[in-house]
Amino acid sequence: MKIQVVKADITEIEVDVIVNAANSSLLGGGGVDGAIHRAGGSAILDECRDIRNRQGKCKTGEAVITTAGNLPAQKVIHTVGPVYNGGERLEREKQDLTNCYLNSLKLAEMNNFKSIAFPNISTGIYRFPKELAAEIAIKTISNYKSETIKNVIFVCFDDENYQIYIARLK
Ligand code: AR6
Protein backbone atom coordinates (compact mmCIF):
# COMPACT_ATOMS: atom_id res chain seq x y z
CA MET A 1 0.00 0.00 0.00
CA LYS A 2 1.38 3.39 -1.02
CA ILE A 3 0.83 6.19 1.52
CA GLN A 4 0.84 9.82 0.35
CA VAL A 5 0.32 13.19 2.03
CA VAL A 6 -1.14 16.21 0.29
CA LYS A 7 -2.33 19.63 1.42
CA ALA A 8 -5.70 20.04 -0.25
CA ASP A 9 -9.47 20.21 -0.04
CA ILE A 10 -10.66 16.60 0.10
CA THR A 11 -13.73 17.39 -2.02
CA GLU A 12 -11.41 17.87 -5.00
CA ILE A 13 -9.45 14.62 -4.68
CA GLU A 14 -9.91 12.05 -7.45
CA VAL A 15 -9.87 8.71 -5.69
CA ASP A 16 -12.34 5.83 -5.51
CA VAL A 17 -13.57 6.85 -2.08
CA ILE A 18 -13.09 9.78 0.30
CA VAL A 19 -13.72 9.63 4.02
CA ASN A 20 -15.84 12.19 5.86
CA ALA A 21 -15.32 13.16 9.52
CA ALA A 22 -19.02 13.12 10.32
CA ASN A 23 -21.05 13.20 13.54
CA SER A 24 -23.35 10.50 14.84
CA SER A 25 -26.46 12.17 13.40
CA LEU A 26 -25.04 11.68 9.86
CA LEU A 27 -27.02 14.78 8.89
CA GLY A 28 -24.12 17.12 8.20
CA GLY A 29 -22.25 19.77 10.15
CA GLY A 30 -19.29 22.13 9.81
CA GLY A 31 -15.65 21.50 8.89
CA VAL A 32 -14.91 18.83 6.31
CA ASP A 33 -18.42 17.40 6.75
CA GLY A 34 -19.99 20.70 5.68
CA ALA A 35 -17.59 20.99 2.74
CA ILE A 36 -18.41 17.46 1.49
CA HIS A 37 -22.18 17.97 1.69
CA ARG A 38 -21.93 21.40 0.02
CA ALA A 39 -19.76 20.20 -2.85
CA GLY A 40 -21.41 16.78 -3.24
CA GLY A 41 -24.99 18.01 -3.25
CA SER A 42 -28.20 16.73 -1.69
CA ALA A 43 -27.86 13.12 -2.91
CA ILE A 44 -25.39 12.50 -0.08
CA LEU A 45 -27.77 13.76 2.61
CA ASP A 46 -30.62 11.75 1.09
CA GLU A 47 -28.62 8.53 1.48
CA CYS A 48 -27.48 9.51 4.97
CA ARG A 49 -31.14 9.95 5.93
CA ASP A 50 -31.99 6.51 4.50
CA ILE A 51 -29.20 4.96 6.57
CA ARG A 52 -30.45 6.78 9.71
CA ASN A 53 -33.93 5.48 9.11
CA ARG A 54 -32.61 1.93 8.74
CA GLN A 55 -30.02 1.74 11.51
CA GLY A 56 -30.37 4.84 13.67
CA LYS A 57 -27.38 6.99 14.57
CA CYS A 58 -23.82 6.02 13.64
CA LYS A 59 -21.78 5.21 16.74
CA THR A 60 -18.35 6.69 17.38
CA GLY A 61 -15.68 4.69 15.55
CA GLU A 62 -18.14 3.17 13.09
CA ALA A 63 -18.53 3.96 9.40
CA VAL A 64 -21.20 3.96 6.68
CA ILE A 65 -20.99 4.48 2.92
CA THR A 66 -23.02 6.65 0.52
CA THR A 67 -22.87 8.06 -2.97
CA ALA A 68 -20.43 10.90 -3.54
CA GLY A 69 -23.03 12.89 -5.49
CA ASN A 70 -21.28 15.51 -7.62
CA LEU A 71 -17.80 14.87 -6.20
CA PRO A 72 -15.04 13.32 -8.32
CA ALA A 73 -14.82 10.35 -5.93
CA GLN A 74 -17.22 7.44 -6.47
CA LYS A 75 -18.32 7.11 -2.86
CA VAL A 76 -18.07 8.78 0.55
CA ILE A 77 -17.41 6.82 3.73
CA HIS A 78 -18.78 8.69 6.74
CA THR A 79 -17.07 7.85 10.01
CA VAL A 80 -17.63 9.38 13.44
CA GLY A 81 -14.49 10.37 15.29
CA PRO A 82 -14.25 10.75 19.07
CA VAL A 83 -14.69 14.11 20.77
CA TYR A 84 -11.43 14.59 22.68
CA ASN A 85 -11.62 14.89 26.45
CA GLY A 86 -8.45 13.07 27.50
CA GLY A 87 -7.85 12.06 31.10
CA GLU A 88 -9.46 8.77 32.03
CA ARG A 89 -11.30 8.72 28.70
CA LEU A 90 -8.12 8.91 26.63
CA GLU A 91 -7.64 5.17 26.01
CA ARG A 92 -11.24 4.80 24.81
CA GLU A 93 -10.85 7.87 22.59
CA LYS A 94 -7.64 6.52 21.04
CA GLN A 95 -9.35 3.20 20.34
CA ASP A 96 -12.34 5.00 18.81
CA LEU A 97 -10.06 6.96 16.47
CA THR A 98 -8.24 3.74 15.49
CA ASN A 99 -11.63 2.17 14.76
CA CYS A 100 -12.56 5.07 12.45
CA TYR A 101 -9.57 4.29 10.23
CA LEU A 102 -10.02 0.50 10.47
CA ASN A 103 -13.75 0.49 9.75
CA SER A 104 -13.28 2.90 6.83
CA LEU A 105 -10.58 0.65 5.34
CA LYS A 106 -12.81 -2.41 5.78
CA LEU A 107 -15.72 -0.71 4.00
CA ALA A 108 -13.41 0.38 1.17
CA GLU A 109 -12.17 -3.20 0.81
CA MET A 110 -15.69 -4.64 0.83
CA ASN A 111 -16.38 -2.36 -2.14
CA ASN A 112 -13.16 -3.39 -3.93
CA PHE A 113 -11.79 0.15 -3.94
CA LYS A 114 -8.15 0.69 -4.80
CA SER A 115 -7.69 4.27 -3.57
CA ILE A 116 -8.95 6.08 -0.48
CA ALA A 117 -8.40 9.58 0.90
CA PHE A 118 -8.68 10.44 4.59
CA PRO A 119 -9.04 13.83 6.31
CA ASN A 120 -7.42 14.30 9.73
CA ILE A 121 -10.39 12.89 11.62
CA SER A 122 -11.29 14.52 14.98
CA THR A 123 -8.52 17.16 14.80
CA GLY A 124 -10.87 20.09 14.10
CA ILE A 125 -14.09 20.72 15.97
CA TYR A 126 -13.56 17.52 18.02
CA ARG A 127 -10.18 18.90 19.31
CA PHE A 128 -8.12 15.68 19.25
CA PRO A 129 -4.41 16.60 19.64
CA LYS A 130 -2.97 16.63 16.13
CA GLU A 131 0.32 14.82 16.86
CA LEU A 132 -1.44 11.99 18.65
CA ALA A 133 -4.12 11.73 15.96
CA ALA A 134 -1.44 11.55 13.25
CA GLU A 135 0.44 8.85 15.15
CA ILE A 136 -2.74 6.77 15.42
CA ALA A 137 -3.76 7.34 11.79
CA ILE A 138 -0.35 6.46 10.35
CA LYS A 139 0.13 3.43 12.61
CA THR A 140 -3.31 2.03 11.81
CA ILE A 141 -2.93 2.47 8.05
CA SER A 142 0.65 1.17 7.97
CA ASN A 143 -0.28 -2.00 9.85
CA TYR A 144 -3.29 -2.74 7.66
CA LYS A 145 -2.79 -5.50 5.13
CA SER A 146 -5.12 -5.11 2.17
CA GLU A 147 -5.57 -7.11 -1.01
CA THR A 148 -7.53 -4.39 -2.78
CA ILE A 149 -6.38 -0.99 -1.51
CA LYS A 150 -3.24 0.21 -3.28
CA ASN A 151 -3.23 3.95 -2.47
CA VAL A 152 -4.00 5.81 0.74
CA ILE A 153 -3.87 9.61 0.70
CA PHE A 154 -3.83 11.70 3.86
CA VAL A 155 -5.45 14.97 2.89
CA CYS A 156 -4.33 17.72 5.26
CA PHE A 157 -6.21 21.01 5.14
CA ASP A 158 -4.47 23.07 7.80
CA ASP A 159 -0.75 23.69 7.62
CA GLU A 160 -0.09 22.33 11.12
CA ASN A 161 -1.43 18.88 10.22
CA TYR A 162 0.40 18.95 6.89
CA GLN A 163 3.75 19.63 8.61
CA ILE A 164 3.09 16.89 11.18
CA TYR A 165 2.31 14.29 8.50
CA ILE A 166 5.24 15.28 6.28
CA ALA A 167 7.62 14.99 9.24
CA ARG A 168 6.26 11.57 10.23
CA LEU A 169 6.19 10.07 6.74
CA LYS A 170 9.39 11.41 5.21
N1 AR6 B 1 -10.81 19.06 3.16
C1 AR6 B 1 -9.98 18.36 3.97
N2 AR6 B 1 -9.87 18.56 5.28
C2 AR6 B 1 -10.65 19.53 5.83
C3 AR6 B 1 -11.55 20.30 5.07
C4 AR6 B 1 -11.62 20.04 3.67
N3 AR6 B 1 -12.44 20.70 2.86
N4 AR6 B 1 -12.17 21.18 5.91
C5 AR6 B 1 -11.66 20.97 7.14
N5 AR6 B 1 -10.73 19.98 7.10
P1 AR6 B 1 -13.45 18.81 11.38
P2 AR6 B 1 -13.79 16.73 13.46
C6 AR6 B 1 -9.91 19.41 8.17
O1 AR6 B 1 -13.76 19.89 12.32
O2 AR6 B 1 -12.75 17.39 14.29
C7 AR6 B 1 -18.39 18.58 11.90
O3 AR6 B 1 -19.30 19.58 12.29
C8 AR6 B 1 -9.65 20.23 9.40
O4 AR6 B 1 -8.55 21.13 9.18
O5 AR6 B 1 -14.02 18.87 10.01
O6 AR6 B 1 -13.72 15.25 13.26
C9 AR6 B 1 -19.00 17.20 11.96
O7 AR6 B 1 -20.36 17.21 11.57
C10 AR6 B 1 -9.30 19.16 10.42
O8 AR6 B 1 -7.91 18.86 10.36
O9 AR6 B 1 -13.90 17.35 11.97
C11 AR6 B 1 -18.84 16.86 13.42
O10 AR6 B 1 -19.87 17.44 14.19
C12 AR6 B 1 -10.06 17.93 9.94
O11 AR6 B 1 -10.59 18.28 8.66
C13 AR6 B 1 -17.51 17.49 13.78
O12 AR6 B 1 -17.33 18.56 12.85
C14 AR6 B 1 -11.19 17.53 10.85
O13 AR6 B 1 -11.86 18.69 11.31
C15 AR6 B 1 -16.37 16.52 13.60
O14 AR6 B 1 -15.19 17.12 14.08
Question: How would you briefly describe this protein structure?
Answer:
The chain has 170 residues and is an alpha/beta fold. The protein is 41% helix and 19% strand. Ligand AR6 binds at residues 9-11, 21-23, 29-33, 35, 81, 119-126, 155, 157-158, 161.
Task: Report on this structure.
The protein is 41% helix and 19% strand. A six-stranded mixed beta sheet has the order 1-6-5-2-4-3, with helices on both faces. It is globular, with a radius of gyration of 15 Å. It contains five helices and six strands. By secondary structure, it is an alpha/beta fold. Helix 3 (90-110) packs across helix 4 (130-142) and helix 4 (130-142) crosses helix 5 (159-169). The longest helix has 21 residues, at 90-110. Bound molecules: ligand AR6. Ligand AR6 binds next to strand 2 and helix 1.
Would you spell out the secondary-structure blueprint of this structure?
Blueprint: E1 2-7, E2 17-22, H1 31-40, H2 42-55, E3 63-67, E4 75-80, H3 90-110, E5 115-118, H4 130-142, E6 151-156, H5 159-169
Parallel strand pairs: 1-6, 2-4, 2-5, 5-6
Antiparallel strand pairs: 3-4
Helix pairs in contact: 3-4, 4-5
Strand arrangement in the largest pleated sheet = 1-6-5-2-4-3
Helix proportion range: 40-55%
Round the mean pLDDT to the nearest integer and report it.
Answer: 98
Q: Distance N terminus to C terminus? A: 16 Å
Secondary structural class: alpha/beta
Shape, per Cα inertia axes: globular
Number of helices: 5
Record field, number of beta strands: 6
Task: Provide key terms for this protein.
binds ligand AR6, alpha/beta, 6 strands, six-stranded mixed β-sheet, 170 residues
